[in-house]
């Protein structure tokens, strides 16, 4: 299957996690997807990123397929998600499972924050570049970002065909991103993605978790 990232927005306004926060786990019903205004980053600048960091970030992972709640994939992804919530800035990762491509597209049609679509035809990035893309997109999306992972049959054609002119007209952006040339089960792809989000957080924090090639 082709890996895809998509953003989503829940129906109710999101509030940052507090001291007694309990993970929401996986929702079966899709939330609205997001896309970002291209000029937001330039207008808000560093002040916006600092403000967002104070209240925490929200990342949605949209998937097509059955929930893996209780399975080893869910336990592995939650392990990294728990670490993300415990760091500063806090990052909450919520997985939204959709029963079909149609349900996915309807949910994504309602979002207002950046949308990254995982696909083998997308841009190849290393972990440092992924870190920049992640936090730049969160900044542009007002501390929200969505990823999408396709089901067993891959992504809907509508998501793979990025029409830049139309997206610019609508005032939003969608980007194809590749996690590599290997084909992964969508549940395993979710684990890889959440780990990379955690790695990006640690790179920004300057911890010893990431041991990349010396520059």
From TrEMBL:
<protein>
    <recommendedName>
        <fullName>Ribosomal RNA large subunit methyltransferase H</fullName>
    </recommendedName>
</protein>
<dbReference type="GO" id="GO:0032259">
    <property type="term" value="P:methylation"/>
</dbReference>
<dbReference type="InterPro" id="IPR029028">
    <property type="entry name" value="Alpha/beta_knot_MTases"/>
</dbReference>
<dbReference type="GO" id="GO:0006364">
    <property type="term" value="P:rRNA processing"/>
</dbReference>
<dbReference type="InterPro" id="IPR029026">
    <property type="entry name" value="tRNA_m1G_MTases_N"/>
</dbReference>
<comment type="similarity">
    <text>Belongs to the RNA methyltransferase RlmH family.</text>
</comment>
<keyword id="KW-0489">Methyltransferase</keyword>
<dbReference type="Pfam" id="PF02590">
    <property type="entry name" value="SPOUT_MTase"/>
</dbReference>
<keyword id="KW-0949">S-adenosyl-L-methionine</keyword>
<dbReference type="GO" id="GO:0008168">
    <property type="term" value="F:methyltransferase activity"/>
</dbReference>
<feature type="region of interest" description="Disordered">
    <location>
        <begin position="1"/>
        <end position="23"/>
    </location>
</feature>
<dbReference type="InterPro" id="IPR003742">
    <property type="entry name" value="RlmH-like"/>
</dbReference>
<keyword id="KW-0808">Transferase</keyword>
